[in-house]
Every structure is written in structure tokens, then in C-alpha cells.
Amino acid sequence: MSVIHTERARFRALPANVTFYDLIRRNKRKSVLLMIGMGLLVMALGAALTGAVTAYSTGGELPNLWPSAALGAAAAAVVALVVSLWSFYGGSAVLLRMAGARPLEKKDDPQLFNVVEELSIAAGTPMPAVYLIKDPALNAFATGRDPAHGTVAITSGLREKLSRDELAGVMAHEISHIRHFDIRLAMLMATMVGLIVFFCDAFWRSMWYGSWHGTRRGSARGGGKGAGAAIVIVMVIAIVLAIIAPALAMLIRMAVSRQREYLADAGAVELTRYPQGLIGALEKLGASTQRLETANRATAHLYIVNPLKNALKGKGHELSSVLRTHPPLGDRISRLRALTR
């Protein structure tokens, strides 16, 4: 049995007739559904928390709860939209500053610019801005709101370690993120997660340090048993959502990140027509144990491999978990080999 057929046998989810385009379409559908789920979670959280506040302040009268819950859901949707717009127009500049990236000109690194330019032509996208992160760690990422405003960034450590074919594989991976609009999705998902955490934190603070304790007795006396039951139900829903929403939002974001990495790997091979380039680069990335100093939990999902210290220990890149932003490197390499005709 050939190496390709052996690798295929390891992935039952990849039938014999699978193509790069099938994988791209599948991952896009999953990502759209996950983004819808994140938006619904934000609205549900807004409705539940507003309903809880109303229940305490009005004695749990049902005619007041439903309009308040609807208003809370609408307000959460509006806030999410405003914050997302800010992220859409200004998020990439913030990410580049956080990464310590500086812009490059063609005279600084002609080979890198030639590779990026060739791949952009192959992808049918505008030439992205090119940035360098002065750090010995091996990593790279892409950002921007759309292909017309795309940016690719690579660490000096990775730039020095890669051959031209491997560099093309990495840059093709990042340009695929731009071409597939992953860069926009990643920024919006990070914004939504931050918003959900903020809502939940505000709920807990208002519950323990606000005036709720003072209004509870009066509300209970004025509303009777029905009001008390309504308060309990609404509060239980709000508390449960406040507990699970941040964790659920993080899981959704990580699921999106894992799917997008597989998609970008497939897209990179489509652009270069040479899977061994990306495979070689991924093998070098997996062998590195140098942590990227400017990376943090908020930005880790943007990079081609997880840059955090806990992912670099031992065989950390090979661990498969819903709590990880990247799929195992071994799986990514095997999928690339399995998809090679």
C-alpha cells in the first residue's frame, strides 16, 4: 500500500474522492454555522441578564419580563455590531502593534516580496503588506479586514530557517487565510468572545456589588408566590448562562480556528502545487520550542502554529483537544499527504 493510501486510512472523514475544493466548501459551511451560533449566544446572554435585572427590580411580573428580555437581546446585538465594526476597521493595526511587527519594503527582503507577489497573483488577490517580527521564534500570521487590506507577518526566526519552497508554503498558507476571509472571521470571533466575557463579568459584579440585595425583599413581598417563582427561574437561567457562556464562546472560537487551519493548508497546496514545501515548514515549526514573546491567549489563534509556551513543551503540538486553537501538526501533515494525488 502506498504512503498516500496509508495516510488516507487514518482519516475516515476523508473519502477516496475528496478534493481540496470539497474540504474548502465543508469548512466554510461549518464556520458560518459556528458564527451564527456565537451571535445567538450573545443575544441569549443579553436577554437573560436583562431579564434577571428586571425580575429583581419589578418583583418578577411576567408582563415586564418579556419586553425587557427582547430589549436586552436587541441591545446586545447592537453592541456586538458596534464593537465588531470597530474591530473590522481598526483591529488589524492593533494586532500588528501587539505582535511588535514592523513593515518591510521590497529592498529589505526581495525574495520574500517576490514569493508573496507570485502567490498573490496565483490567488487572484491584491499584494498584501509584508511585516517582520524581530523574534527568534518560528511563526507567522495574517490579518486585515479583507483581501484589499491584507497583511502577512513572519518572525525573523522563521524567515531564516526556511528554504524558498518552504517559505512559499507558509506564505501561501497565510494568503489563503486572506483569500478565504479567515482574517476577518478571526478578528470578529475574538471580539465576540471578549464581549461575552465582558457581559458576564458585568452581570456578576452587579449581582454581588450592586443594589440587588436591597431590592430583593421588597420585590418578594410585592409580587407573591408567582413573582418569586419567576425571579428564581430567570435568575437560574441568567446564572447558568453567565457560567457557561464564556467557556462555550471560547470552544466555538477554537473550533473555528482548527477548521480554518486545515482549510488554509489545503489552500496553500492549491496555490503552490507543491505540498512538500508546506510539509517541510510545518515539520520545522513542530520541532521548535522557542516561545514567541509577544503572543498571548487573545492572539494565539492567528498564528500558523500555537506560539504559547504550553503548546511548545514536549509533543504539545501533537495534542488533540477542544481546548486548543490549532489541530495537531501530525494530523495537518498527514492530511496534506493524503490529499496529494
Walk me through the topology.
Layout: H1 3-9, H2 20-58, H3 62-99, E1 101-103, H4 110-123, E2 129-133, E3 140-143, E4 151-155, H5 156-161, H6 164-179, H7 182-209, H8 212-272, H9 275-287, H10 309-312, H11 329-338
Helix pairs in contact: 1-11, 2-3, 2-7, 2-8, 3-7, 4-6, 6-8, 6-9, 7-8, 9-11
Can you offer a commentary on this structure?
The protein is mainly α and 341 residues long. The chain contains 11 helices and 4 strands. Strands 1-2-4-3 form a 4-stranded mixed sheet, sandwiched between helices. The protein starts with a helix and ends with a helix. 43% of the residues are buried. The N terminus is likely disordered.
TL;DR of this structure?
With 341 residues, the protein is mainly α. The chain has helices spanning 3-9, 20-58, 62-99, 110-123, 156-161, 164-179, 182-209, 212-272, 275-287, 309-312, 329-338, and strands spanning 101-103, 129-133, 140-143, 151-155.
